[in-house]
Amino acid sequence: MRVLVVGSGGREHALAWALSASPLLSQLFVAPGNPGTAAFATNVPIAAMDIAHLVRFARQEKIDLVMPGPEGPLVAGLADAMAEAGIRCCGPSRAAAQLEGSKAFTKVLCDDAGIPTALWERFDEPEAAIDFIRRRGAPVVVKADGLAAGKGVVVAATEAEAEAAVTAMMQEGALGGAGQSVVIEECMTGPECSLFALCDGTDAVFLGTARDHKRVGDGDVGPNTGGMGAFTPVPDFDPLPAMDVFIRPALAEMARRGTPFRGILYAGLMLTPDGARLVEYNVRFGDPECQAMLPLLRSDLLPGLIAACDGELAGFDLRWRPGCAVAVVMAAEGYPAAPRGGTVIDGLEAAASVPGALIFQSGTRVEHGRLLADGGRVLTIVGTGDTHAAARSAAYAAVDHVRWPEGFCRRDIGG
To answer: Using alpha carbons only, how large is the chain's radius of gyration in Å?
Structure first.
């Protein structure tokens, strides 16, 4: 089979790496890819959001399966465009991708399907939102309704913080169109857990659980980021009953609405004192959760993706290796506000030689034969082992081999 992975980050590097091992594969392309994916796939200089160009390329190259990594192209209609071209795409339609594209859409679906989530209200006018905050009090969570690249959620400890978030999003346009409407919801407390499933519109196959670390600094301090690390599996959490509470009811409701969901469904959960409740749905693998999970996959991923596209997941199974994985993100100095680019990275070969370690690239480029930082989150260093402690040890042993003075990472991932 000829497969096209869409995206350029560490998640897409991990997806391409997993797919490259399939005996069913004849050729693998990544658009646009990164220097890491170039080691075993053909990088194609097409941006992930250039849907028309991606469709033309898929037609020309007779692509059998498209695997999108990021959410943006899916919300913009990549799967619909591929379907019109007669090409399998393991991702939801534009309509189904609203599960991530609109916070209010998800909240209404949860209410209709009886899925536990936080109490919420949606606002289109800043004055009404601020009035609600003053009546409701703090803490509250203010969320931009649309896609905001991980920057659209503010957990406000005070009314002043909540009002400032509303003003920034709705009046100052800090998030563009994504913040024209906001959802304000109660502030839930407890550890978080991400639950992943592969879906075909009707049936779902459990993929795994993970927990990521969002804040930039050790001890969960500093601003939120796209994710500074993750570990899998999540201890003391039974995922199979959660599939019947958070995944299958969502699939049934989406099918009832005439917008069946196919692809990767990611339920972000808060494990509150009153039980698990939904924080959000994502319509793709998480990053860096994907990098942590896929090294534990024993089965061939490609047949599962095909089965999801073809509606044939009933009775399908994926097997996973026993053990644990810890993924540590190395980011450029100044991230997340103003990451410093163009700095030289060395030592990856030595890092990859650590037993149980894997290196996935994201914000990198090659110039004059040297690997340079070219983004905020630049590398994901993954360690695997029989226990979380062993996996964590492997990950940080590999991190210590990376020679990149301008890079940094959290030292407490999975700790």
So the answer is: 21
Sheet holding 65-68, edge to edge: 42-43, 27-32, 2-7, 65-68, 88-89
Model confidence at 203, pLDDT cuts 50, 70, 90, reads very high
Residue tagged 């898929």 (tokens): 58
Q: Are 33 and 96 in contact (CB under 8 A)?
A: no
pLDDT in tens, 224-268: 899 999 999 999 899 999 999 999 999 999 999 999 999 999 999
For residue range 296-327, list pLDDT tens digits in order. 999 999 999 999 999 999 989 999 999 999 99
Burial class of residue 349 in the structure, from the number of CB atoms within 10 Å of its CB (0-12 exposed, 13-18 middle, 19+ buried): exposed
Smallest CA-to-CA distance from 352 within 25, 4, 9, 36 is with: 36
β-bridge partners, 229: 328
The span from the CA of 381 to the CA of 13, in Å, is 12
* Beta carbons of 34 and 13 less than 8 angstroms apart: yes
pLDDT in tens, 257-284: 999 999 999 999 999 999 999 999 999 9
In contact, 152 and 169? CB cutoff 8 Å = yes
Say if CB 229 and CB 329 are below 8 A apart. Answer: yes
SS3 content of the chain, % helix, strand, coil (to 5): 30, 30, 40
All domains in the chain, ordered by first residue: 2-89 (3.40.50.20), 119-186 (3.30.1490.20), 192-310 (3.30.470.20), 324-408 (3.90.600.10)
For residues 125 and 182, give the distance between their C-alpha atoms in angstroms, rounded to a whole number: 9
Tell me the DSSP string of 86-148: T-EESS--TTTTHHHH-HHHHHHHHHHHT--B--EEEESSHHHHHHHHHHH-SSEEEEESS--
Residue 19, both tokens: 């797919």
Beta bridge partners of 365: 372
Distance CA 168, CA 151 (A): 12
- Angle of helix 126-136 relative to helix 159-166, nearest 10 degrees? 170
| Tokens, residue 252 | 């049934």
62: left (phi over 0), alpha (psi -120 to 50) or beta: left
Q: Which band of pLDDT confidence, cut at 50, 70 and 90, is reported for residue 223?
A: confident
Give the phi and the psi of residue 204 in degrees, each rounded to 5.
-140, 145
